[in-house]
Amino acid sequence: MGNAAHPLPLADIRVVELGSLIAGPFTGRILGDFGAEVIKVEPPDRPDPLRMWGERLEGHGLFWPIQARNKKCITLNLREPKGQDLFRQLLPHVDVVVENFRPGTLEKWNLGYEAMSAVNPGLILVRTSGFGQTGPYKDRAGFGSIGEAMGGIRYVTGHPDRPPVRTGISIGDSLAGLYAAIGCLVALHERSRSGRGQVVDTALYEAVFGVMESIIPEYGLLGHIRERSGNILPGVAPSNIYATADGSWIAIGANADTVFRRLCAAMGRPELAEDERFATHIARGEHQEELDDLIESWTKTRTCEELLEMLAQSGVPAGRIYNARDMFHDPHYRARDMILEVDHPVFGRFPMPGVVPKLSRTPGKVRHPGPPALGEHNRDIYEGLLGLSPSAVDTLKSEGII
């Protein structure tokens, strides 16, 4: 995993991460996982609230060590002119600035893209906000939950006889962070040809909307509005979750004709594959509820483990509905380094999700968890990178700039 012969793929990139919580820092996390030097900036008087998110142990939030992993944490008060001047001193040493403030915030601090690029023309500014940097809604406050609502995913999530629901994670923020990371890498690639930086503008609602499949042509051409459908996709069958004899739930996806035949054989009901109600994709969709009832009447006679073994041997996609305990003890997760244990100065061995995606020659790596101390790397950056004297750094601290 990243050595002298094969350094991490982004090891020559330096990123300054502004902002807080999930969307912008998620972008920084991805870049850091693949070797970028990510310098996270927090106001000295307003630490990132994510430090206290998630369940807490010994007063520390358990999300922060994951989201801030591989990052160097410094403090800097950008609301003060002296802090803004110090930030400008960083810019010649930086490839990327990541931020997720409301549009206009950087400009209010005299740190908009024009001002930054005047110092460093190759700089890439990655901006994530609720509604983007332009348009009639740009000045509105926007959290991931609002992006999920306006991007469409909330409307189609849940059961048809109940109000829309959210997923159990901040999916809108994470999607925006992913799109912003993609945009950043695209801009870095383009810069290798032009030598020029640019702005990457990601909106939370657009990141959600970008994964909403064909809902727009369905409405624009057919007048059809996709509705909530619970655990199924209407017309795609069988693809559902089914109760098992031991009180678990198993997901089975056998909607392709050939896979459905294999499922029928595993059930001991090969004749179902020839039944006119189920023989084709369209027919199965038209008799979806009836088919699901037949399948569940079978799954309820066996334990989840028995079903998983039978379906694996038959080549039918299936999986237990996992909770954290299932993931933690699953051998496949461990074999693919998807649960890593890293040394943490407070918690000792700290388990966290591994790096995605996997690269064959230069894979990413978790080098350290998120630093628990506020401004832990101030001297490393201000003295080591900018060349300030220790007394100058002490003065900045006494003045509340760092």
Automatic annotation (TrEMBL):
One GO MF term: formyl-CoA transferase activity
Annotated coiled-coil segments of the chain: none
Enzyme class: transferase
EC identifiers of the protein: 2.8.3.16
UniProt keyword Transferase present: yes
Keywords: Transferase
A Pfam family it matches: CoA_transf_3
Name this polypeptide is given: Formyl-CoA transferase
Organism of derivation: Kyrpidia tusciae (strain DSM 2912 / NBRC 15312 / T2) (Bacillus tusciae)
Taxonomic classification: Bacteria, Bacillati, Bacillota, Bacilli, Bacillales
